[in-house]
């Protein structure tokens, strides 16, 4: 979590690439720490890559598309990754279209240009820094609510903009389902890029942060019921797996779901 005046943590990276020479060259020549990154794992196929991503919950995934086992985009679909960069020797339009729908930050052509790769990684780090600052603001608002006994993330319900209000309504009705910006944009008849810019401009936070905050609010309510286990709560609130749920919950609240539950008053 970003905090002004406190040394920033390194954003974690998992790199999935089946070409040994390409993988080793990028691993060896990239100044990971200098870019604010920590490479925590590599894999050479889509199956092992998925397992590693689900286990380690990295901030960023860098992957080829054509991989043994399953392609890189299918791997990303299974893991609900926040930030991803595609490296590919192919410029297939359908691949690029799928990548855009998954929120991939950039699509780099192989052989990868070192300067272009570094520029892309800097852009991803900048994006994550901005998101963390916004989430810190959200957390501060939630902590103030906690002082008056209401542990909830405050989110605007009506903002006076027809399309944004329709998007918020879409989130409220569909947050428990595997939906994202693409589905919301289709529902309100806007392009994804237009909706993304408009939503952030009007509400002050981006679409994914709002969606995750809504899911966290519902999880907070469900965690008060000791009969519900954390895995079931994660799925009921729209998170693809318990690991991602735990990571997002801690990011927004400062505690894991189990730590939050342990801190509740005993009945």
Tally of extended strands?
A: 5
Helix content: 55-70%
Structural class determined from secondary elements: alpha/beta
Please state how the strands of the largest beta sheet are arranged side by side. Answer: 2-1-3-4-5
Q: Would you tell me the overall average pLDDT?
A: 87
Order of H and E elements: EHEHEHEHEHHHHHHHH
Remind me, CATH topology of the largest domain?
Rossmann fold
Distance from N terminus to C terminus (CA atoms, Å) equals 32 Å
Number of domains: 2
Strand content: 5-15%
CATH homolog superfamily of the largest domain? Response regulator
- Tell me what the CATH architecture of the largest domain is: 3-Layer(aba) Sandwich
Continuous helix count: 12
Main beta sheet, described?
A: 5 strands, parallel
What would you report as the Rg, rounded to the nearest angstrom?
Answer: 19 Å
Unreliable stretches covering 5 or more consecutive residues: 1-6, 146-150
Anisotropy-based shape: globular
Q: CATH first level of the largest domain: which class? A: Alpha Beta
What is the topological layout?
Elements: E1 11-16, H1 20-29, E2 37-43, H2 46-56, E3 60-64, H3 72-79, E4 83-88, H4 93-101, E5 106-109, H5 114-147, H6 162-174, H7 181-188, H8 192-203, H9 207-223, H10 230-236, H11 242-253, H12 257-262
Parallel strand pairs: 1-2, 1-3, 3-4, 4-5
